[in-house]
Amino acid sequence: MASSSRPKKPVHNVHNGVGQLRIIGGEWGSRKLSFPDVVGLRPTPDRVRETLFNWLAPYIGGAKVLDPFAGSGALFLEALSRGAAQGQALDASNVAVSSLKEHLGTLRCTTGQVQTADALRYLQTQAATEYDVVFLDPPFNQNLLPTVCALLEEQQWLAADAWIYTESETAPSTLGLPGSWRLHREQKSGRVYYALWHRLLESAA
């Protein structure tokens, strides 16, 4: 989850400046991990993650995943637990990145990489790798989502047959995302919209 201002979500098990997230399924299912109680940094709720990974179940095994706004790492760790072959996570918060690195060490995970980086700059300047699944949960109220999605397309960060998950404060139909993306599933929880998009180019059809 991103670590900037956004509509508040319920906070569970937060005490002494530390919160807990639970990995739901896969190799590390039921493992509980702490995350720093940084303002705005909250894991995607368990039930939303469970729904998302039910949607992604046929595609997550062996996938290369990218999480440019990793925050607590809930989505990133869930993907690796469920069989993603390789993952790259980014976050602008040093505290969040340090915590996620510790989790990868605790889990003895060597297939996930995490670094402190501004997502937009990273996508603009780094050599692109094609990812099969991308999680996009940018800070709200900054109009970041359309910009990030455009960069993923323009800089060739996506596999031809890619899946993209978005969290937004407005309905998916209003986001103006790339024309090659098709809305596969959507859900709303409180004031937050969750959606899964399928990028399918003609050449991959």
Record keyword descriptors for this entry.
9 strands; seven-stranded mixed sheet; disordered N terminus; 29% strand; single chain; 5 helices; Rossmann fold; alpha/beta; globular; two-stranded antiparallel sheet; 205 residues
Can you offer a commentary on this structure?
It catalyses: guanosine(966) in 16S rRNA + S-adenosyl-L-methionine = N(2)-methylguanosine(966) in 16S rRNA + S-adenosyl-L-homocysteine + H(+). InterPro entries: RNA_MeTrfase_RsmD, SAM-dependent_MTases_sf. Pfam families: Cons_hypoth95. Specifically methylates the guanine in position 966 of 16S rRNA in the assembled 30S particle. Keywords: Methyltransferase, rRNA processing, S-adenosyl-L-methionine, Transferase. The structure is a single chain. By secondary structure, the protein is of the alpha/beta class. The protein has one domain (18-204): Rossmann fold, CATH 3.40.50. The protein has five helices and nine strands, in the order E-E-H-E-H-E-H-E-H-E-H-E-E-E. The strands form two sheets. It has a seven-stranded mixed β-sheet with strand order 5-4-3-6-7-9-8, with helices on both faces. Helix 4 packs parallel to helix 5. The longest helix has 15 residues, at 46-60. It is globular and about 40 Å long. The N and C termini lie far apart (32 Å).
